[in-house]
Amino acid sequence: YIGDGYATTVGGYQIARACHDTLMRDGRAAYVAARDGRLTTAVENIIEANTLLSGLGFENCGVSGAHGIHDALTVLEPVHHFLHGEKVAFGVLCLLVLENRPPAEFEEALSFCRDVGLPTTLADLGLKDASAADIARVGEAAMVPTNVIHSVPVKLTARAISDAIWTASHLAERGKAAG
Question: What is the pTM of this model?
Answer without folding.
Answer: 0.90
